[in-house]
Sequence to fold (159 residues):
Amino acid sequence: MSCRKKYKIIKKVAEHKRKVRKEEKANANKKFKPKDPGIPNLYPFKEQLLKQIEEKKQKDEELKQQNKELKKKTRKRKLQDLQKDAEKRAKLYEKQQSFITDDKLLKTAPIELSRKSFYKEFKKVVDASDVVIQVLDARDPIGCRCPQLEELVMASGKK
Fold:
């Protein structure tokens, strides 16, 4: 074996031993936890004290059980609430579908209905607003303008 390998192995062993000693010092406090001495046999009210401790443990267990049951109940309530919400949404959807299938609205598509409602809301917003800001893309300002909206804003009569 060459001297180089021999000294390298010696260094590695010494480094490993240092690490082990360092870990032992760090874990020295963790290994030796002081044990609970318990209640001495000569204590005059030992039986009563043990009963109190046991009752306290039972009460804690009962509280834990009650908390678990409450959590289960709240989960069930959440599921029930979700089911009720789903039923309400289903009813609303059915109403909307029946509204669309009316003879008057049968001619117009749902997209047109949403456009009409959007323009109604937009007109309300424009009438209520004091300032209208239009954001344009600097790369193509003419392409991102909407002349219909500009006309609508100008027609509202506010300057």
